[in-house]
Design brief:
The structure holds 3 protein chains of 3 kinds.
Chain A: H1 6-11, E1 17-18, E2 26-31, E3 34-39, H2 44-49, E4 56-57, E5 64-65, E6 78-81, E7 86-88, E8 99-101
Parallel strand pairs in A: 2-8
Antiparallel strand pairs in A: 2-3, 4-5, 6-7, 6-8
Chain B: E1 4-7, H1 11-22, E2 28-31, H2 52-56, H3 60-73, E3 78-81, E4 84-89, E5 92-97, E6 100-105, E7 108-111, E8 115-117, E9 130-132, H4 133-143, E10 145-146, E11 150-155, H5 158-169, E12 173-179, H6 183-193, H7 197-212, E13 217-219, E14 222-227, E15 234-238, E16 244-248, E17 251-255, E18 258-260, H8 263-267, E19 272-275, E20 280-283, E21 290-292, E22 295-297, H9 306-324, H10 331-354, H11 361-364, E23 370-372, E24 377-378, H12 379-387, H13 395-402, H14 415-426, E25 445-446, H15 447-454
Parallel strand pairs in B: 1-2, 1-7, 2-3, 7-22, 9-17, 11-12, 11-17, 12-13
Antiparallel strand pairs in B: 4-5, 5-6, 8-18, 14-15, 15-16, 19-20, 21-22, 23-24
Chain C: E1 2-11, H1 15-26, E2 31-34, H2 43-46, E3 50-51, H3 61-72, H4 74-78, E4 89-93, H5 96-111, E5 116-120, H6 121-127, E6 137-141, E7 145-146, H7 149-162, E8 166-168, E9 173-179, E10 182-187, E11 191-200, H8 207-211, E12 220-223, E13 226-231, E14 239-242, E15 248-251, E16 256-260, E17 265-266, H9 278-291, E18 299-304, E19 308-310, E20 317-320, E21 327-331, H10 337-354, H11 377-381
Parallel strand pairs in C: 1-2, 1-11, 2-8, 4-14, 11-21
Antiparallel strand pairs in C: 3-7, 4-6, 5-6, 9-10, 10-11, 12-17, 12-19, 13-16, 13-18, 14-15, 15-16, 20-21
Helix pairs in contact in C: 1-7, 1-10, 3-10
Classes of the chains: A alpha+beta, B alpha/beta, C alpha+beta.
The structure holds flavin-adenine dinucleotide (2 copies) and FE2/S2 (inorganic) cluster.
The site of one flavin-adenine dinucleotide has 39 residues of chain C, from α1, α2 and α10.
Chain lengths: 113, 455, 390
């Protein structure tokens, strides 16, 4: 069985590791503006966590969070999208072109003009 | 024709739908999930090259049978995936989909909403990389992803070894399996577990396969803390001989068995009763799953029974519907099913003795440990609120004062530990500490669902 | 049998009872505060938390301003601010008729010295750019405020206790009798109280203690549905209310938006139920999305209501019994008792200790129901079904 050395582990940005491959092609999306790649068919949570080690910052204190139950129950995986939507990453499909935000985007509608 | 609605597309819901479809009732099957199969038998997401036979071993046949059963009734039912039931009022369900909110009315309702992991917090449990044990399995089956590269499986649950083995099979590095229940307790539970010899043997084979593979298998451990700066770096445990041991890892799967997702049952009017074995409040049902007028409950949403019990109880609940509607009266079949459900659930109760919920751990938690992930409420804040004059000693009051259980998950995750904390800190029996009351919406719904309705 | 001799027995540990006990204790009275459940768990603990000055019944302003003054000094009074926040209050109109209404309310407020700003669409767009286009005008009062109702009543009761009040929880008053100058209060526990004054502050349950002494009021129980969203970036600083009652919303600095909306729903004080029909959740969400469009993607996570006592003229009963000296009523707060709560407590303590209060309370006399009373316009509009009125 493949074993990975501990040394490489800490530099790896993603939390999740793909165990099996997917048929679908790769899709491009962004996290806080940085381009990322995932695979068609991924949940948004898997798409993010194969690239990053957090989904969001907790509203109260700002600590990093990466979801917990992975089945739509704990509600700890809500992420923001560039367009202002707020979605539950573990039950939302990743779509090419999505812009994910780990903190709320500045909503144009609420700024003073 | 009577309008029968089934909520939940897991083994219980599918078997209920099959039985109803067989009597040409054309049931409505509502499921929040987008893929059918529920938690245990969830079909992989599209395009995933996952060999379910290799992954599930002996259970693969059941998985295929269930998926085939669903495929065979697909056009005899009204199947609505991606549909969250968020409220129940009288004989009307309020549902939310991507398109908006609408209602579904019913003459009879079968709820088969399944379960989720039961969690006892420990220092560091909110770090990225710590996931619920069932979730660790879901991410593998549904997404083909490990929750990390070097994973520790911790807690106490029949799924602990199963999940560890599945990870191992697919190439993850399982750094340790840390079961908090002492081996002695498992040995003592063995005579009762022998009632289901196949299941018991399967459990033992998981254990031995892991041991053969050289995975450290610890029993009777105390989980001390999870360490890491911004993600998991290690878990520290005290083994049964009192030695502190550190396992470097980048992920922890944590779980202490399951707890029913009984929110809808409660909203539908099921009476909730304290169950001393599981230390949880469970909906009250009769032998067939009746929980009230036109209300039937099946599967893990009533009492944790596992996938086999879910299938049998789903079929049984559907039979009860058919019989109450005056459509069938085959009593002998129902009796056989009833016995089967009873046996399977009794077995699961024996399992609860082999995989113990660590109720007492809550006393040892230090004040700075977060109990409520959503609102970031610490154990210490709850203790302090309780200690002041006229302080609360009931969970809903503790919630009102501290916000513990008030967040997005509505106490699903912190509820069981909160009950233990309130009971132990007040020095009262856990049933006297109460349970967090349920309100609709059972899960968050966006303002925009209402708008769509109007347009 | 535990027999307590006291100056005053207060029936009901809501906000009204707790403040009354607090002020009486500060004046040196021996007080027993009796609560059937736990303090502050009913109306007083479930309400919306608005401390609104705009749009009140004109005759209530002296009381209301006195109360606001106490709220503004909450931290000094009880050592805890309970999230008191001088948020200001924005009263919004959707059309010209509603604009006339808020302007009229403003005139009344201004006559009591409250500063009101009249904002037209352009000004609103500058000051509160997140307001939806449907709002054509609004009045803003900076002195209106909010506080966390879940925290206030227990905090007041705790201080009252430290000042010497005997606070008894899980104890329901069953019977109140008077012989000579002494009241005998019996409970469902072994507690019995003998005292010279009784304050009936039993909220939606208060009527039986009035009727026992030969007076009554057409009280009925209901609750406005309340909703709360997940935490969202903080931007709605004032408390926002539309005159038609379809939206009453505020955001706390933690980010959650708290929302209420009429019509109110009948509640059951016997079974202790205050249901929130899902259709009302949807209706309130839809209305809020129109008034604050930026919240479209915000999620509602929880709903609740409470059991409040209402009267057809939408005014409370506050003051001495007209049949029984020493008995004082304070109930039926018609959805606005949180704001005046501390003022009511202070006035009642003055009535008991000094024999009178400077604050005019005559519009709230229980005796008014012996005559034909004018049914409030709000009463007709803001409840689910057409109510039987006296
Ligand atoms: C995360 C997790 C992983 C598990 N993994 C395994 C495993 O690998 N092997 C195993 O043998 N057992 C597993 N189990 C145990 C599993 O609970 C049972 O074996 C079996 O799946 C129970 O079947 P069920 O039909 O009762 O519920 P489930 O299979 O859980 O199905 C319930 C269904 O109801 C839906 N639902 C819930 N609430 C609503 C709502 N409000 N509106 C609409 N739909 C709703 C859910 O989306 C879900 O599809 C797991 C359990 C969990 C919680
Ligand atoms: C959902 C909701 C929202 C509201 N929003 C606002 C708002 O924004 N602003 C505002 O100003 N007001 C608001 N109100 C109104 C306000 O909450 C009430 O007017 C106020 O709390 C009344 O206080 P109380 O002490 O009279 O009543 P309660 O808090 O109901 O207290 C009465 C107490 O008496 C106890 N009791 C009853 N019978 C007995 C007995 N036999 N023996 C012992 N104890 C007994 C009860 O258990 C209860 O605790 C709202 C009310 C509700 C329900
Ligand atoms: S991870 Fe729990 S809801 Fe998504």
């Amino acid at each position: 069985m493949p074993r990975m050395g501990a040394a490489s582990m800490d530099e790896r940005p993603g939390l999740f590791v793909r165990a099996v491959d997917r048929d679908g092609g790769s899709i491009e999306f962004t996290i806080d503006g940085s381009p990322m790649t995932a695979r068609a068919g991924d949940s948004l949570l898997a798409a993010i966590l194969t690239n990053a080690s957090l989904l969001r910052r907790l509203e109260f204190g700002g600590e990093p969070r990466a979801g917990f139950c992975l089945m739509g129950a704990c509600q700890d995986c809500w992420v923001w999208l560039d367009d202002g939507r707020h979605v539950r990453a573990c039950t939302t499909a990743a779509v090419a072109g999505l812009g994910v935000r780990t903190t709320p985007p500045a909503l144009a509608e609420i700024r003073n003009v | 024709m009577s309008n029968v609605v089934v909520v939940g597309g897991g083994p219980a819901g599918i078997r209920a739908a099959c039985m109803l479809a067989a009597h040409r009732l054309r049931p409505v099957l509502l499921d929040e999930a987008r893929n059918v199969g529920g938690q245990g038998y969830r079909a992989p997401s599209p395009g995933l090259r996952l060999d379910m036979d290799a992954l599930m071993g002996g259970e693969a046949a059941k998985y295929h049978a269930l998926q085939a059963a669903f495929a065979s009734i697909r056009d005899q039912i009204e199947y609505r995936p991606g549909t969250l039931v968020w409220a129940i009022e009288g004989k009307t369900l309020h549902v939310a989909t991507d398109e908006g909110s609408s209602t579904v009315s019913f003459d009879a309702l079968i709820l088969a909403t399944g379960a989720m992991d039961r969690i006892m917090p420990l220092p560091g449990w909110t770090l990225p990389g710590v996931f619920a044990l069932g979730g660790a399995q879901v991410s593998l089956k549904d997404q083909g992803c490990f929750i990390g590269r070097r994973v520790a499986f911790c807690g106490s649950s029949p799924l602990l070894n199963l999940a560890a083995l599945q990870y191992r099979k697919l190439g993850a590095d399982v750094v340790a399996v840390c079961d908090t229940t002492p081996l002695g307790a498992k040995v003592r539970a063995a005579p009762q577990l022998a009632a289901a010899p196949r299941t018991m043997m399967r459990g033992i084979s998981y254990l031995t396969s892991l041991m053969r593979a050289g995975t450290p298998m610890l029993h009777g451990v105390t989980l001390l803390r999870i360490e890491g700066k911004s993600r998991v770096e290690a878990i520290i445990v005290r083994d049964c001989r009192g030695r502190e041991r550190r396992f470097a890892c980048d992920a922890v799967a944590l779980g202490y068995g399951l707890k029913p997702e009984a929110q809808l049952a409660e909203l539908a009017g099921a009476e909730m009763r304290f169950d001393a074995t599981s230390r949880l409040w469970l909906p009250k049902i009769d032998a067939d799953g009746r929980a009230g007028r036109s209300l039937y409950l099946a599967g893990d949403s009533v009492v944790i029974g596992g996938a086999d019990a879910a299938e049998a109880s789903g079929e049984l609940a559907a039979r009860a519907v058919l019989s109450d509607l005056g459509i069938v009266h085959a009593r002998s079949v129902a009796r056989g099913l009833r016995r089967r459900v009873f046996r399977l659930r009794r077995f699961q109760r024996a399992l609860a003795r082999a995989f113990v919920w660590p109720a007492n751990r809550v006393k040892d938690l230090s004040d700075d440990v977060a109990l409520c992930r959503c609102e970031n409420v610490s154990v210490g804040e709850i203790r302090r609120a309780m200690d002041q004059a006229l302080g609360p000693i009931e969970v809903n009051r503790v919630k009102a004062i501290t916000r513990c259980g008030m967040g997005r998950c509505q106490g699903r995750v912190c509820g069981p530990a909160l009950q233990e904390l309130v009971a132990s800190h007040a020095g009262i029996p856990i049933e006297a500490a109460g349970r967090l009351r349920v309100q609709a919406p059972v899960k968050p719904i966006p303002l925009s669902v209402a708008r769509t309705l109007a347009e | 049998m535990t027999r307590l001799i006291a100056d005053v027995a207060v029936l009901g540990g809501g906000l009204i009872g707790s403040w009354t006990a607090y002020f009486l204790a500060r004046r040196g009275k021996r007080v027993v505060l009796i609560e059937k459940g736990v303090v502050g768990a009913q109306s007083s603990g479930t309400n919306f938390g608005n401390l609104r000055l705009q749009g009140r019944f004109p005759g209530q302003y002296p009381l209301s301003l006195r109360a606001q003054d106490l709220w503004e000094r909450l931290e000094d009074l009880i050592g805890d601010s309970c999230e008191f926040d001088a948020t200001g209050h924005l009263y919004c109109a959707f059309d010209e008729a509603e604009r006339d209404k808020i302007d009229h309310y403003a005139e009344v407020s201004e006559s009591y010295g409250i500063r009101i700003e009249h904002l037209d669409r352009a000004q609103l767009k500058r000051r509160f750019p997140w307001l939806g286009r449907k709002v054509i005008a609004a009045t803003y009062s900076a002195r209106d405020a909010t506080a966390n109702p879940r925290l206030v009543t227990p905090a007041v009761a705790r201080v009252a206790k430290s000042l010497g009040v005997t606070v008894v929880e899980h104890c329901a008053v069953r019977e109140v009798r008077k012989s000579g100058d002494t009241f005998h209060v019996d409970t469902d526990t072994d507690l019995q109280v003998e005292c010279g004054h009784v304050v009936n502050a039993a909220g939606a349950w208060a009527l039986e203690f009035a009727e026992r002494f030969g007076e009554t009021a057409p009280l009925f129980p209901a609750g406005p549905p309340q909703f709360v969203t997940e935490p969202f970036p903080y931007f709605i600083t004032p408390s926002v209310q539309t005159v038609d009652g379809s939206v009453i919303a505020r955001q706390i600095p933690r980010g959650n938006v708290i929302l209420a909306g009429y019509p109110r729903t009948a509640a059951d004080p016997i079974l202790n139920r205050a249901p929130v029909p899902p259709v009302k959740t949807l209706a309130a969400m839809e209305c809020l999305a129109e008034v604050v469009p930026a919240l479209r993607s915000c999620h509602v996570i929880r709903v609740w209501s409470g059991i409040e006592g209402y009267l057809p003229d939408m005014l409370p009963v506050i003051g001495q019994s007209e049949t029984t000296p020493g008995l004082i009523h304070a109930f039926g707060f018609c959805g606005h008792g949180f704001q005046i709560g501390p003022g009511v407590g202070l006035c009642l303590s003055e009535i008991i200790v000094d024999g009178h209060t400077e604050t005019p309370l005559s519009p709230f006399a229980i005796g008014r129901f012996q005559q034909e009373i004018e049914v409030s316009d709000k009463f007709k509009r803001e409840f689910d079904a057409v109510r039987k009125t006296p």
